[in-house]
Specification:
463 residues; 2 domains; 14% strand; alpha/beta
């Protein structure tokens, strides 16, 4: 069953890009209330199957839509996303809604405040539909949890949308929101975007305020149908907040306009495999076609080999350190309920020592030096976003140990840029021979977010 297209005429508004939807509001061709009601109806019909949302806020969404409709009628929209239906990933506190972080260990207690991203969206008039699923504590890169089950990929219900922002991507791909907010600590926006035919941006660390629970690798960012839509959301969520001590000062960029910039003359280093990753042939061929579109847009593309080194080992040290004490704090009955993949991460975390932390610090410095050397030659680096298409349910990471070759391969292209705070996008570059989406990753040095949006917009499948 393919759920990525309208099933009825009324569903067409559920698949409109945000930019087109806002223009329709401006022309009074469609209303926020009409769109929200259609979206809620589609959620009621489809979400029980794909499990993209774990909590829907029907009353809040309707109230926000009615307020947006009144503002549009008065010719005074609150902001660039007034009346646009959005979903929020579990990770991010949303007043009145729960954020259990994908785990049965955490109560479904409503938050009493909005995280910075959510606050900016509300100020812009966005209609918040509900909270989307993530895996247990965002530990594994497919979206399955004891509390909420497995989230299914709308392109193929026998496959996962990836993770950890899998619910966000599944909801958007299935027409259950117009924009989705995800978070990315090692590929958690880019992998789901690649597996569901969407555009995802992992911003430069600090560009989008993130609080509470800051780490020096996790960011919030947009998952969208187009690069222009991602830029429209960035114009809202990159505004100052003041609660994130790693927040960057505003850069004055118009990210929506950036998606339309010419890219002629930009220098692109294209690596098929970063020098160590095993990429499925069908994925490699589809990515190569996407790189060809960058050439056609006037970019100067040079094929390169190694990009840094296989950073999965040091990435896992950083990612797992926060879990080191968890096993001791969970009773045996609760531990027995977790999938083996989650327990393998706890096992790994307990083995981390001081020497490992030093290896992380040294390795990250080495990786940063290597990537900066490449970015002196190139404006961006292109590669697959993921080495495979969307993985089948119950396979790949869910059933593998943390140090298996399969796990290492999945994160190969994504996690290096989290370690060194650099931005990257995944742009839908076409379908594989199996009819499944493939993502082209384009990464750049710190603060190159706008350039990456421009490049991603040139990849034909995202326009």
């Amino acid at each position: 069953m393919l759920l990525t297209k309208p099933q009825a005429a009324d569903d067409a508004v559920c698949f409109m890009p945000a930019t087109a939807l806002v223009e329709s509001y401006r022309r009074r061709a469609v209303s926020p209330v009409e769109v929200t009601e259609r979206m809620l109806a589609r959620i009621a019909a489809i979400n029980p199957t794909i499990k993209a949302y774990y909590q829907i806020d029907e009353a809040g969404a309707r109230a926000a839509a009615e307020a947006a409709e009144a503002r549009w009628a008065a010719g005074a929209p609150a902001g660039p996303l007034d009346g646009v239906p959005v979903s929020i990933k579990d990770h991010l506190q949303t007043k009145g809604l729960a954020n259990p972080r994908g785990s049965f260990l955490n109560a479904m207690t409503p938050a009493d405040f909005d995280a910075p991203v959510v606050a900016r969206l509300r100020e812009s008039g966005a209609v918040i539909l509900g909270k989307t699923t993530m895996p247990e504590l965002s530990v594994i890169p497919v979206t399955t949890s004891v509390a909420f089950g497995a989230t299914l990929n709308p392109w193929d219900l026998a496959r996962s949308p990836g993770g950890s922002s899998g619910g966000a991507a599944a909801a958007l791909a299935a027409g259950l929101c117009t924009l989705a907010v995800g978070t990315d600590g090692g590929g958690s926006i880019r992998l789901p975007a690649a597996f569901t035919g969407l555009f995802g941006l992992k911003p430069t660390l600090g560009r989008v305020p993130y609080w509470p629970g800051q780490t020096d690798r996790t960011v919030a960012g947009p998952i969208a149908r187009t690069a222009a839509d991602a830029g429209l959301m960035m114009n809202v969520i990159a505004r100052p907040d003041g609660r994130d001590w790693m927040e960057l000062p505003p850069d004055g960029a118009d990210y929506h306009a950036a998606a339309a910039r010419p890219v002629k003359g930009l220098r692109i280093g294209y690596s098929r495999d970063f020098g160590f990753a095993a990429v499925a042939p069908d994925v490699a061929a589809t990515v190569a076609r996407g790189v060809g579109q960058l050439r056609a847009a006037g970019c100067v593309v040079e094929e390169i080999g190694a990009v840094g080194f296989d950073a999965f080992d040091i990435y896992m040290i950083q990612a797992a350190m926060r879990l080191a004490a968890m096993r001791k704090a969970i009773d045996a009955g609760a531990l027995a309920r977790f999938p083996r993949a989650f327990l393998s991460v706890l096992d790994f975390a307990e083995r981390i020592g001081v020497a490992d932390v030093q290896r992380l610090l040294d390795g990250r410095n080495k990786l940063g030096d290597s990537l900066l050397a490449l970015f002196r030659r190139f404006d961006a680096i292109a590669s697959p976003a993921a080495p495979i298409e969307a993985p089948p349910l119950g396979r790949f990471y869910p059933d593998d140990e943390i140090d298996s070759a399969a796990n290492r391969n999945l994160l190969a292209f994504a996690c290096p840029f989290n370690l060194v705070h650099m931005p990257a996008v995944s742009a839908f570059c076409g379908l594989s021979g199996q009819g499944l989406p493939v993502g082209l990753q384009i990464a750049g040095p710190k603060f190159s977010d706008a350039t990456l949006l421009a490049l991603g917009a040139r990849v034909g499948a995202t326009q």
